[in-house]
User: Fold this.
Amino acid sequence: MGKELLRQLPKVGTLLEQPQWQELIDKYRRGLVRSALDQELNLWRRRILDGGGRVPDADELLAAVSSALADLVAPAPRPVLNATGVVIHTNLGRAPLAPEAVNAAREAADYCDLEFDIDSGQRGSRHRHAEELICRITGAEAALVVNNNAAAVMLCLAAVARGGEAIISRGQLVEIGGAFRVPDVMEQSGVTLREVGTTNKTYLDDYRRAVTPETRALIRVHPSNFRVVGFNHEVSLAELVALGQEQQLPVLDDLGSGTLVDLRPWGIEEPTVQESVKAGADLISFSGDKLLGGPQCGIIVGSVEWIGRLKKHPLTRALRCDKLTLAALTATLALYLQEEGWRRVPVLRMITESGEAVAQRAQKLADLLAGLPLSVTVDADISPVGGGALPLHRLETTVLRLRTDGLSADQLAERLRAQRLVGRIADEQVVLDAKTLADGQLTAAATAVAAALGGE
Ligand SMILES: *Cc1c(COP(=O)(O)O)cnc(C)c1O
Assistant:
């Protein structure tokens, strides 16, 4: 039975001779069409061997190959509608950029003065573009931008402490998603870890007693994605800086997210970069695409002397970021220099938005969904900030809970994802969180839901 079906499967060579395939062959290379068709036929073959297959007709094959090839050449990553409510969603590309940043990146995509001084016609440094902005915002003397914060930490460690020891509290030996473990990064930088204190309590004397002639730095890492609550003690940055001065050791401060705006009025307890600068840390590093709300990059600020050393370090060449990133970053930073301009940074707009505004947006989406074969309830809820930031903080939000006859929550969620709308599942219902949908995305979200219900 299976053998007979296998024999009936069309042959690649014969199919490609048929005129309806010519258009695909003209568009893509013949070899590419052939291998895509091979792949498609293999799927059918496997289904037949598994016992549940049949013989496809020629139109089905053409449609499948055509869509596989269109997918292959489509630019990726492609946009999704984020209805998860997680503002800094690492799997969904972290911070969505402000329009100003998108425009800047688009313009810099052409020839640009990346490493060229327009006035003198001489070579210029790519590092100069963002440095002044960062210094003006943070109060630091000097700054350097690299590929991401993991790279920033690695570079700081390698430049400051390679071949020696660095002292860190056991309470800060954290793992931050995506295989970034502080101890591993230190090791890769050629630095020996000296752990002090315990998971929940570390005192200044623990650091002082661990100093040896091999010590090159004192390190603080912001425990981004977890908190020790209850019986705990950590040394403040100011205390660590004082010890560093006493022992003539530089203090490295990995802030992780690092916010440029004090979010405490919104109940968000996150140290600002400016505070670390004021406290006197020698090198401070933070991400560009977490609470800063810009493109993926790692920003290092510090003294002219230390940053100057980093700029000359051989690793810097390997870790530098490209013109698109620098353009998007400077455009994002420029917003921070304008009165209330930070509110135009999407991540910060979402985090500080009133619960009422989110509720209105949720209601608007619910109205757009009226008439679809769907049960929709609108509920107050809470959502995390995400991105390994602010683990204890919950944002007030409003969600839509969707249910439809004949589909489980998983099936509905899968169909929504096929329309590039990503929600979450709770209590056997699909949850769409209005917090992370922009006003301008509501129609697209409603269209996606309609298509998910209509399509097979
Ligand atoms: C997120 C984070 C990192 C890594 O930053 P990336 O920009 O993702 O490379 C490093 N340290 C801390 C404390 C973090 O929170």
About this structure: The first helix runs from residue 2 to 8.
